[in-house]
Design brief:
alpha/beta, about 325 residues
Length: about 325
């Protein structure tokens, strides 16, 4: 796969990244706490950061995405976060994401397969989504962001191939960096339009003990498409039981730094034997961190001041040649 990586203009592996600032709530990205957060993140030997933020549509069948409204971060906040990343020598991926205000997971956003008069339609939704994405693609271009993610875990929407191809063409008309799409876990071999993007990326929330089988499955896709690959999301909550279901942030269990650390070490070790894995954007790093002395009480994906941070720093150090 090396020849492919070398001929994708703008792509340089390996990526040792972190997702920062989620969910991108207005007022949280330009603060002293945010600056402290990004500085602390660099201690994990990261060389990339994904600036991820969400716009809210009302329900899974709404067709309007009011991305200029609260709680979504403003363009100025995105500029400020990008500047902080540049000051710390990081490459940047801009990742606008749509969420549903009533709590429905974005994968369930959906409409009839074919447009029906009088019913909300895919065409209406993509018209609004296009405005959301193109607005931020223009911003990504102005900021010289190295990568732009056109969507995240839109499982039902994934089947709307024509809409995605048109959208990606529109993005290319205004953005000159790398384009990726973040498919959900288990969906890597189901997407039919990987040829339209520069980098294949997915959410790698796979249960402990299953990494080899999933890497085998994904490798077939990467070799077929002959494109770079990145786990643009991957991580595990620091709680008992989460390694068996790392995608479930609602799973009940006691806080456990070791559970998270062991899962991360297993993932990195498995991927180290697959040279086509171009890197990782770990989930996640908050703009406003909890006190370090309270890290053992936090049972979310955050890595700050946990055993998992030491695991990441070690693997990233070896991955990037800084250790």
């Amino acid at each position: 796969m090396t020849t492919t990586l070398n001929r994708i203009e703008g792509w340089e592996a390996p990526v040792g990244g972190m997702t920062w600032g989620w969910t991108g709530e207005r007022g949280t990205w330009g603060t002293p706490a945010a600056r402290h957060s990004m500085t602390a993140m660099t201690e994990l030997n990261v060389n990339w950061v994904t600036l991820a933020f969400a716009a809210l549509q009302s329900t899974a069948q709404s067709t309007e995405i009011p991305f200029l409204d609260e709680p979504t971060v403003t363009d100025d906040e995105i500029r400020a976060a990008t500047a902080m990343a540049r000051e710390r020598g990081l490459k940047v991926c801009l990742k606008p994401v749509v969420n549903v205000a009533d709590g429905t997971w974005r994968a369930h956003i959906g409409f009839f397969d074919e447009d029906v008069p009088g019913e909300p339609t895919w065409s209406q939704w993509f018209a609004s989504y296009r405005q959301f994405i193109l607005h931020h693609a223009r911003l990504a271009e102005a900021l010289d962001a190295e990568m732009f993610c056109v969507g995240c875990e839109m499982v039902r929407a994934d089947k709307q191939e024509a809409h995605w191809r048109t959208l990606i063409d529109d993005v290319r008309a205004i953005y000159t960096g790398l384009i990726t799409y973040n498919c959900d876990k288990y969906q890597e071999d189901r997407l039919t339009w990987w040829d339209a993007v520069d980098v294949i990326s997915s959410s790698g929330y796979y249960p402990t003990g299953t990494w080899e089988e999933h890497l085998d499955r994904i490798e077939a896709v990467v070799r077929r498409e002959d494109k770079p690959f990145l786990f643009i999301e991957t991580g595990c909550p620091s709680r008992e039981g989460s390694p068996q279901r790392p995608n479930d942030w609602t799973l009940e269990g006691a806080p456990s730094e070791q559970a998270q650390a062991s899962w991360l070490d297993e993932m990195f070790t498995a991927c180290a034997g697959r040279p086509w894995v171009g890197g990782f954007m770990l989930w996640d790093w908050k703009a406003d961190l909890y006190p370090a002395e309270q890290a053992h009480l936090d049972d979310d994906y955050s890595l700050y001041a946990k055993k998992g941070a030491t695991v990441v720093a070690s693997h990233y150090g070896r991955l990037l040649g800084s250790a």
